[in-house]
C-alpha cells in the first residue's frame, strides 16, 4: 500500500510504502534510525539488521542526507515520537543518492541559508512555518466563503497608486507608465459595489528601502471590502476573522507549533472581542511609558506599537488616527473631521501592525476635494471617482499582511522565514 506520512496512522500494523527523502540518520551497531520526510510530514524509520537483507541494511547505514527512496515497512505506534508513529523498515529502494548536500545538521549563518532557500525549505522548522502559512490561507478562504464573500482578483499591473505614495515599482506598459500593485483595495471597492462583500488574496509590492524584521519587498495581502458596512461593523468582522484563523491553526497545526516551540497559551487566549484604544489615548499611554517626544499628529513606529501592545493581552485596535497621516480615501469622523474612521490592529508580543482598515469616503464632493489635496486629478483615478457618482453607499474594508500574521502566530522573529522565497532589499536570489 503506497501512502504518505500524514496518512500512516490509518495503517497501524500494516505494511506500507512511502516515497521519501532522508532528512537525517544515526546508526548504532545492528540498528539504523532514519529520519524521513515526504513533504507531508516527518517520521522515523527503524532498520534492524535482523529484519532486512544485508544489502538493505548497508544501504540504510551508508545513505546520504537528502537521498530519495521508496521505503517499505510496518507502521507501529510510538508515544515517544512527536508524530506518534514510526516505521519498522523491511525494504528500501534507492531512487537517487544525494552527494554533498550543502545544508548539514550543523549551524549555518542566515545568509548561507538564504542563498540556499530552495533547499532550506526542506528543514523541519521551515516545513512547520510553511504548513502554518498554508493553514492560515485555508482558514481565510473558509471564513470568507462561509460569510458569503466573493473572491475577486485585482490587477497586479496598475496605472495608479492606492496609497498615493512614491514607494512604487515602475515599469513600462507598452507606451505608458505602470506600477506593480501595492494594494488591490481601490479595485476591491469597485468589486464591492458589484457583489456586496468581496475579498482578494494576492501579491503586493513596496519599493520601501527597509531592512527591519517586519518588512518584505514582495508580500501577500488579504483584502476584504464590504458595501453597506460601517467602521464599527468592520472592526467586528476583523476580530472575528483573526480569532477564527488562530483557532484553526491551534486545531490543525499543533505538531507544527510544537516543532517551533511556540507558547500556544498566548494564542489560546485570543478570541473576539479585542480591546480598542483611540489614537489620542495611545499618545497619552506612550507619554506615560516614557516616549516623551511623541506628539499628536505623528505616526507610530515599531517601538511605539510594541509599547502599546504590551498593555494588552490580546491584539489591540488603535482607532481614529489624524487624517493628515492616513490615506486620502479614509472617511473623516463626522463628529471630529481632523481624524478618520480607521484602525490598525496591533498584534501582541512585538509583532506590530497586522491589519490596517477604514471606512471609505462615499461622498462625491468630499472625494473630489481629496483629489485636489492629493493631486489625484489625472485620468488614472477617474474610474475610482465614478464609484461615488453612481450609487455610492457606506462601505469599509481592510488589509491583512499574511507574512506578519504568520510570523506572529508561528512565533518567528523575522518575516523572511514566513514566505517561501523572500524578496528583501538586497535579495532577489533564489
From TrEMBL:
Record-annotated Aminoacyl-transfer RNA synthetases class-II family profile domain positions: 130-430
Tree of life domain: Bacteria
EC identifiers of the protein: 6.1.1.22
GO terms, biological process: asparaginyl-tRNA aminoacylation
Family annotation (InterPro entries): Aa-tRNA-synt_II, aa-tRNA-synth_II, aa-tRNA-synth_II/BPL/LPL, Asn-tRNA-ligase, Asp/Asn-tRNA-synth_IIb, NA-bd_OB-fold, NA-bd_OB_tRNA
Pfam families in UniProt: tRNA-synt_2 (PF00152), tRNA_anti-codon (PF01336)
UniProt GO cellular component terms: cytoplasm
Protein's cellular compartments: Cytoplasm
Keywords noted in UniProt: Aminoacyl-tRNA synthetase, ATP-binding, Cytoplasm, Ligase, Nucleotide-binding, Protein biosynthesis
Molecular functions (GO terms): asparagine-tRNA ligase activity; ATP binding; catalytic activity, acting on a protein; nucleic acid binding; transferase activity
Keyword hit for Protein biosynthesis: yes
EC class name: ligase
Reactions catalysed, as given in the entry: tRNA(Asn) + L-asparagine + ATP = L-asparaginyl-tRNA(Asn) + AMP + diphosphate + H(+)
Family to which the UniProt record says this protein belongs: Belongs to the class-II aminoacyl-tRNA synthetase family.
NCBIfam families named among the record's database cross-references: asnS, PRK03932.1
Summary of subunit composition and partner proteins: Homodimer.
Protein name (database record): Asparagine--tRNA ligase
Originating species: Lentibacillus salicampi
Amino acid at each position: 500500500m503506497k501512502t504518505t506520512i500524514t496518512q500512516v496512522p490509518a495503517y497501524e500494523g500494516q505494511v506500507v510504502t512511502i516515497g521519501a527523502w532522508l532528512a537525517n540518520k544515526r546508526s548504532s551497531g545492528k540498528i539504523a534510525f532514519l529520519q524521513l520526510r515526504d513533504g507531508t510530514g516527518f517520521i522515523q524509520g527503524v532498520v534492524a539488521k535482523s529484519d532486512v537483507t544485508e544489502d538493505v541494511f548497508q544501504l540504510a547505514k551508508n545513505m546520504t542526507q537528502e537521498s530519495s527512496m521508496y521505503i517499505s515497512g510496518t507502521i507501529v505506534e510510538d508515544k515517544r515520537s512527536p508524530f506518534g508513529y514510526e516505521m519498522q523498515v523491511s525494504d528500501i529502494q534507492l531512487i537517487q543518492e544525494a552527494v554533498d548536500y550543502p545544508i548539514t545538521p550543523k549551524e549555518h549563518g542566515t545568509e548561507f541559508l538564504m542563498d540556499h532557500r530552495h533547499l532550506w525549505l526542506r528543514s523541519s522548522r521551515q516545513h512547520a512555518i510553511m504548513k502554518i502559512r498554508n493553514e492560515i490561507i485555508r482558514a481565510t478562504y473558509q471564513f470568507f466563503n462561509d460569510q458569503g464573500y466573493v473572491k475577486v482578483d485585482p490587477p497586479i499591473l496598475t496605472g495608479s497608486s492606492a496609497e498615493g505614495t512614491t514607494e512604487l515599482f515602475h515599469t513600462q506598459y507598452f507606451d505608458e507608465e505602470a506600477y506593480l500593485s501595492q494594494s488591490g483595495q481601490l479595485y476591491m471597492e469597485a468589486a464591492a459595489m458589484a457583489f456586496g462583500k468581496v475579498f482578494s488574496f494576492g501579491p503586493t509590492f513596496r519599493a520601501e528601502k527597509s531592512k527591519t524584521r517586519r518588512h518584505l519587498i514582495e508580500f501577500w495581502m488579504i483584502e476584504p471590502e464590504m458595501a453597506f458596512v460601517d467602521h464599527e461593523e468592520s472592526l467586528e468582522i476583523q476580530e472575528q476573522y483573526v480569532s477564527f484563523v488562530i483557532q484553526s491553526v491551534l486545531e490543525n497545526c499543533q505538531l507544527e507549533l510544537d516543532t517551533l516551540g511556540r507558547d500556544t497559551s498566548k494564542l489560546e487566549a485570543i478570541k473576539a472581542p479585542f480591546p480598542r484604544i483611540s489614537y489620542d489615548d495611545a499618545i497619552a499611554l506612550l507619554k506615560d511609558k516614557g516616549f516623551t517626544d511623541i506628539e499628536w499628529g505623528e505616526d507610530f513606529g515599531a517601538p511605539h506599537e510594541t509599547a502599546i501592545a504590551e498593555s494588552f493581552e490580546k491584539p489591540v485596535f488603535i482607532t481614529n488616527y489624524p487624517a493628515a497621516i492616513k490615506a486620502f480615501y479614509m472617511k473623516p469622523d463626522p463628529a471630529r473631521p481632523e481624524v478618520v474612521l480607521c484602525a490598525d490592529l496591533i498584534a501582541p508580543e512585538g509583532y506590530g501592525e497586522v491589519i490596517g482598515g477604514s471606512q471609505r469616503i462615499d461622498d462625491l464632493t468630499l472625494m473630489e476635494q481629496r483629489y485636489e489635496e492629493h493631486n489625484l486629478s489625472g485620468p488614472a483615478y477617474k474610474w475610482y471617482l465614478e464609484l461615488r457618482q453612481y450609487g455610492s453607499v457606506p462601505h469599509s474594508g481592510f488589509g491583512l499582511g499574511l507574512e506578519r500574521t504568520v510570523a506572529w502566530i508561528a512565533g518567528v522573529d523575522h518575516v523572511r522565514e514566513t514566505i517561501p522565497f523572500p524578496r528583501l532589499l538586497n535579495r532577489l536570489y533564489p
